[in-house]
Amino acid sequence: MKESDKSLGVAVLGCGSVGSQVVRLLQEQAGDLAARVGAPVELVGVAVRRLDAAREVEVPEGLLTTDAAALVARDDVDLVVEVIGGIEPARGLILSALEHGASVVTANKALLAEDGPTLFEAAEKAGRDIYYEAAVAGAIPILRPLRESLAGDTVTRVLGIVNGTTNFILDKMDTSGAGFGDALQEAQDLGYAEADPTADVEGFDAAAKAAILASLAFHSRVTASDVHREGISEVTAADVASARDMDSVVKLLAICELRPGADGGEDAVAVRVHPAMIPRSHPLASVREAYNAVFVESEAAGQLMFYGPGAGGSPTASAVLGDLVTVARNRLAGTRGAGESAYAARAVLSMGESRTRYHVAIDVDDRAGVLATVALAFAEHDVSIQTVRQEGRGDDAQLVVVSHEATDAQLSATVAHLRTMDIVRDVTSVMRVEGVAE
Ligand SMILES: NC(=O)C1=CN([C@@H]2O[C@H](COP(=O)(O)OP(=O)(O)OC[C@H]3O[C@@H](n4cnc5c(N)ncnc54)[C@H](O)[C@@H]3O)[C@@H](O)[C@H]2O)C=CC1
Ligand SMILES: N[C@@H](CC=O)C(=O)O
Ligand code: NA
């Protein structure tokens, strides 16, 4: 260990989009980092899959290795940055690093959302830190505010755009009419997308982030499997156009809510990720390209908004380095930061119990009484209608209904009912609506 001479050895695992920028910053800012930490922070190894791969950064000779397991076990490694991603070997390497006495910084939301508690318990046992600000919303400081700044308040809701790739795609579809494939390719070229972009497009990445946000916000253990997840692969150009007609945009939202327990029982949490229409006047509507934004509502503070670059190698490396400075300082001070806080152990509600609103576009027969019949279907499921408008005539007749808030179960039963009705030719678009006052 280098603690005797106060120099801290850093191992970086993975040298892709994020890892290469972490290595660059460690080298370029060595002097400032040493001053801020109070000791030199020295890059002592970089684990890669292939030694001869092309890289965005020049790694000093002798530092590259393909043996990540041996690297994390070395005596001169005090701090480990895991930016490989995925579940294994990342989990095994982090556990081994902690067992060998290193503090860990990771950007790995997939692993944290699947098995965070195992990592937190290992860190607790080892008396070391595990920090992960980069795992949610890239460069935006959001986990530290939830864990530290709001530790004395009661967070009731977290609502955000937390996936840069899908925001980039939806933004391009809305503003330039770009096709889905071209927009995705551009996001991949810019280093925003996950190694397998299905994780972005199908909402897995946002769901992992929602689980991490909900765990911290509500002091409970929420895993990716607790999150209702829908991606953007079924969002059509017609949905985007329909949103535009309503002066709205389609965004992939992550929504984490504290719901009062029934009959005065314990509060529970509801966590969901899905595309939704929001009015263009809503602040989230102006979040463009790969930017992210997160709203936090809490009892005492009210509404807070966090905004910034949510993806990309360099912004994400900024969050990694911020954590690295903190865990390095903690090591020098012989202390560690706050560990997991899951004392509230709140139950997680199913999607059917979540309260939301629907926008439904229905192709109908153009004859007398159709509007009343459709309205009756909503009423039968106790769903109140906020607005309804008719477009087109004859074979082109379409009703566009926006409901008031109801449970998702009531709303989906209404849509299923509409699909069985003779006068309904097709339900062409169903999308949740957020950000509109009741
Ligand atoms: N790219 C982004 O905008 C963001 C990424 N993250 C997270 O950061 C992590 C890294 O993401 P990226 O850099 O984008 O991925 P990437 O795919 O560009 O880089 C991962 C690197 O790890 C290497 N690797 C794989 N297995 C390895 C092994 N056994 N030993 C050593 N190296 C190995 C790969 O060859 C690749 O170069 C992931 O957990 C990701 O979810 C978090 C926030 C934003
Ligand atoms: N693939 C992710 C990267 C950051 O977490 C995204 O697109 O947001
Ligand atoms: Na962040």
From TrEMBL:
Belongs to the homoserine dehydrogenase family. The keyword Transmembrane does not apply. Its cofactor is a metal cation. PANTHER family: HOMOSERINE DEHYDROGENASE. Catalyzes the conversion of L-aspartate-beta-semialdehyde (L-Asa) to L-homoserine (L-Hse), the third step in the biosynthesis of threonine and methionine from aspartate. InterPro entries: ACT-like_dom_sf, ACT_dom, Asp/hSer_DH_NAD-bd, HDH, HDH_cat, HDH_CS, NAD(P)-bd_dom_sf. The keyword Oxidoreductase applies. Pathway: Amino-acid biosynthesis; L-threonine biosynthesis; L-threonine from L-aspartate: step 3/5; Amino-acid biosynthesis; L-methionine biosynthesis via de novo pathway; L-homoserine from L-aspartate: step 3/3. The lineage of its organism: Bacteria, Bacillati, Actinomycetota, Actinomycetes, Propionibacteriales. This is Homoserine dehydrogenase. GO terms for molecular function: homoserine dehydrogenase activity. It is an enzyme of class 1 (oxidoreductase). Gene3D superfamilies: 3.30.70.260, Dihydrodipicolinate Reductase, domain 2 (3.30.360.10), NAD(P)-binding Rossmann-like Domain (3.40.50.720). Its EC number is 1.1.1.3. It comes from the Bacteria. Residues 359-432 form the ACT domain. It comes from Nocardioides kribbensis. Keywords: Amino-acid biosynthesis, Methionine biosynthesis, NADP, Oxidoreductase, Sodium, Threonine biosynthesis. It catalyses: L-homoserine + NAD(+) = L-aspartate 4-semialdehyde + NADH + H(+); L-homoserine + NADP(+) = L-aspartate 4-semialdehyde + NADPH + H(+).
